[in-house]
Amino acid sequence: MAVIIPKDLPASKQLDRENIFVMHEERAKSQDIRPLELAIVNLMPTKIVTETQLLRLISNTALQVKVDLINMKSHTSKNTSHNHLKAFYKNFDDIKYKKYDGMIITGAPVEKLEFDDVNYWEELQEIFDFADKNVFSTMFICWGAQAALKHYYGIDKKDLPEKMFGIFEHKIVRRRPIVRGFDDVFYAPHSRHTQCRIKDIKKIDDLEIVASSKEAGAYLLVSKDQRKIFVFGHSEYDPNTLKKEYERDKAKGLNPKVPKNYFPNDDDTKKPIVRWKAHGNLLFSNWLNYHVYQTTPFDLEKLNQIDKEFGVNE
């Protein structure tokens, strides 16, 4: 099958060049199939880059997925054109009466701010409350995961002594459907200044740590009903994402450290080593398969009646 996106979305041409099959809305309407309804709340400033990265991973499945792109009404984007947002994005007012099989809430470069100082914090909290009742399974990424832990469980993020930046080794702590098929050891990118501490997470009975890193800390959490997935890294990143971030900070005179385990022998003149893409594809396909497709009710109106019959089998 395919991910269903507007024909003119920039990601459509890029995915086509990569021989990734996407379906345009006009063709999807002619098929008698109920696609999975998915929302991506894109908090990143480079929205076109992020939407392409996520759609690439969502496309790597046999399922048909229809995607709504969501941005914050209470925030004016400085890095994405108004025309792009107007053509392809909705805001919370447009979707607050809908129901979704799944939702992804991305990270955002606001982690140094207190949550209350983020200008769209109240609107994002509305989306968190909406997701709890109207979305079957939600994946929160990086700052999005930290924000969700604060909202749902009162867990505060903590400043790191230095930026967590590079590719880090992780190990499986508990075998759950979200990591089915994972190797015992895998790699994932991180780029953040804050963390949610393992000792604070362990105080919450509703949360399970599924994977963690000796250097990078908690990486993957699930709620006990397995409807909330928290990912503290960026498995969606392109091969050169960290390189571009590193070069940007160098150009600003910030004297950044070379991303760990990224360039061969830490030589930033060499091509980065990609060692996280297989894990990233499996993470998203597992989420769509085990946490969304196999468990969400066919009639989305039944989301108001969620109970144990919709649980995820381990």
From TrEMBL:
It is found in: Cytoplasm. It comes from the Bacteria. Substrate binds at residues 163, 191, 248. GO terms for molecular function: homoserine O-acetyltransferase activity; homoserine O-succinyltransferase activity. InterPro entries: Class_I_gatase-like, HST_MetA, MetA_family. The record marks 111 as: Important for acyl-CoA specificity. Keywords: Acyltransferase, Amino-acid biosynthesis, Cytoplasm, Methionine biosynthesis, Transferase. The active site is at residues 142, 234, 236. GO terms for cellular component: cytoplasm. NCBIfam families: metA. Transfers an acetyl group from acetyl-CoA to L-homoserine, forming acetyl-L-homoserine. Belongs to the MetA family. This is Homoserine O-acetyltransferase. It comes from Anaerofustis stercorihominis DSM 17244.
